[in-house]
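Reviewer 2 asked us to include a model.

Predict the structure of this chain.
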Amino acid sequence: MERATLLFDLDGTLTDSAPGILGCARYALEQMGKEIPGDDVLHKFLGPPLVVSFHEYCKMCEQEAQEATRLFRVRYTDTGLFENAPYKGIRELLEALRSKGIRLATATSKPEDYARRILEKFDMLRYFDFLGAATFDSSRHDKVQVLGYTLEKLGINDRQRVIMVGDRANDIDAAHHFGLRCIAVRYGYGNDREFDEHGADFTADTPSDIFKLATKLLF
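Predicted model (structure tokens):
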């Protein structure tokens, strides 16, 4: 029997990264002389790849979206990256899951270098067997690409032994694309309407709820 595995999104699932992401989005728009949308629009940046967000929510062409992403990273690399904090109970969750023998990996649209630095900063990298993440050159950036890469690298065949944990529609959609179940977390950046529309299999209000669901479903 294959080892039980949980795949975690990062932003909005493991850490509250909103301050850094929103601050860097504003910085990029300011540098380009673009109008800065209201918080209701900026909050849509929490989850999808940056290029997609600048294109869809700021009406940029592909070239402008790429430039905005570059400018975002100018501030994010040394400052915005750490305007961030783990959610309460996350370290305890990871510790408890590991104690049950569950393999842990990430599946995040954040570039791997950023994901690694964040998890190292908050002493959480040690819990993960593998970092599934995006690339800086956008060759692997959306959640389906990242999740497919992660499953391949982990050598997973029995997808009933794998659960995706995330907070946005793209986490749910990518999980279902590969025949995985998804736990959508309510404490992140998504909402019940989004979860219902995209068919989240389960929802969790707290990290301890994730533990209860995961152990029930995988054992």
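DSSP finds ten helices and eight strands in the chain. The mean pLDDT is 96. We have added this to the supplementary material.
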